Hints:
Mean pLDDT: 95
Radius of gyration: 31 Å
CATH class of the largest domain: Alpha Beta
CATH topology of the largest domain: Rossmann fold
Strand order of the largest sheet: 14-27-28-29-25-26-15
CATH architecture of the largest domain: 3-Layer(aba) Sandwich
Strand content: 15-25%
Shape: elongated
Amino acid sequence: MSSEKTPISLGSNFIRAIVEHDLADKKYATKKWAGSPGDSKHQALGQLDPAKIRTRFPPEPNGYLHIGHAKSIFLNFGLARDYAGVCHLRFDDTNPEKESQEYVDSILDAVQWLGFNWQTIESNGGVESNLYFASNYFDFMYRAAESLIENGHAYVDSQTADEMRETRGTLTEPGKNSPWRNRTVAENLQLFHEMRDGKHADGSLILRAKIDMASSNINLRDPAIYRVRRAHHHNTGNTWCIYPMYTFAHPIEDALEQITHSICTLEFEDQRPFYDWLLERLAEAGLLAHPLPKQYEFARLNLTYVVLSKRKLIDLVEQKHVSGWDDPRLPTLAGARRRGYVAEGFKLFTDRIGISKADSWIEYTILEDCMREVLNDAAERRIAVLDPIKLVIDNYELDKVEDCFAPNHPLKPELGKRVVPLTRELWIEAEDFMEMPSKGFFRLTPDGMVRLRYGYVVKCTRVEKDTVGNVTVVHCDYLPDTKSGTPGADAIKVKGNIHWVSAQHAYAAEIRLYDRLFKEAYPGSGDRDYLNDLNPYSVKTITAQLEPNLKDAKPEDRFQFERHGYFVADKKDSIDGKPVFNRTVTLRDAWQK
RNA sequence: UGGGGAGUCGCCAAGUUGGUUAAGGCACUGGGUUUUGAUCCCAGCAUCCGAAGGUUCGAGUCCUUCCUCCUCAGCCA
Length: 593
């Protein structure tokens, strides 16, 4: 019986408000959908769209997805789920030089891991795939560009990139018209065709929208929309030597897919006027039909002690500051997964932080708390001694092996108990013994008593030390009538309760103790180089003494090592019968040394 | 200094067309339960909404001015 917790409120945010208003206004009630993306003619052949809204998650396959993307994924897929809509997973692959199949695969994997897929059951019972590639729209984009040219809304410029930069003006000064701005439609069309046909060198010609070089919005100063670039594309191969720019491609992708709410981050806000301009021009030309998609922007995620920019993540990987894209210290979803973070934790996290347009920095501990919260419920308990010292029970029979019973989950008795063997020689945590106890310390001390969790109460009699004075062995006597679970076991009250593992039975395992990758809350802030903020102690590999059954852990099995934290059997380095564990996150510790 | 955004408790974030005592979460503090110093439970936690004026019977919500921060000058997305 699970306790009835108050369900987490989905909260409300400005985007949900917009969606609800649009739905109430029946803004998209007449929108049609022919079962696949396409222009106005294609969609007109379809029926009323069974999806009340369409959103999309449009990653560029030029890197691995990270926690910030999780926010966007939950937003977009969540909106679709909550408002009887559909969310498209669309690869925004318009720049062949940076994109690759490896990234496509990793993104597909991450999205599924978060619990989403791109299959939708249609009203007719069929299954529709909502996995799309922008590169599949290149034909239409080419046609759209021709349309712009034909209607005098675009021209081919012969200026070099440098010249274009010089004539673009500045934030406070207007730009200057290109000398090629008034080429005739026929000339523009011919040059554009020649660009496609490979008759011009990369960068020699470029197609530009013809809007206003004096606009106070720099994005409207005749933005570049099609460039010549001979590069192999992961999807279209060498079919094209011209590629559309994001600015031009993205609105079209949304429109062809009948997206209703195109949600992106704040830095695209300035782009919205062009987004609307382009779509209106194509609608005027009959290529697209109203209602057209609308773009909305929200603040991207910032996390303290974390770096989420693609460029920086690529640097960390390529400069080998981490072991790869799935290094458990990285905020990539692949890394987080290896670290032991769970998808439900990310869901909780995104619900908890909300959506708004205010720039904000979320405290990293919020994410950790979310993981603790779901792991506390999901993970079975086990015992691990991370920094072992010997404890010898002098009055315990030499070869005796006694069964102790430990619950697998204190909040879920139905999960039963397991047997852990107790013997004369045990491993205990070095920090659970203090020769000179500080105030408030209530574990083992000279002459002190403590309970061996799930076993007996034990009283310290003496200690052995090495040459430098470190305690190496603690000697104790046990109190026979105090075994956990037996009548009268609690007759002697002790406050301390420490974990242990039989030295004879323990599984000595490799464990990686991870800490934050950066030592500064705002890596690279001020005039610092973010690489100088790297935490030199972000990982520590130790050999720990584990409860014997942990030897059978399978990759990605998660446990709470009692009194320590949550750990996961590494999916990559674990060998059958010899798992290696990663510390996901520690338990909270109110005692804080 | 041009354009576009944002400023509500330490961190996030709700605040319907202005209407009464400014949601909620996290953190924090105090108390309780507990064979994890964990979990869980209870209680407390903004007379104030970037600042200053103004309109109004009444303003976080309207007006004016000011301040701070973010963002835009790739043939990247």
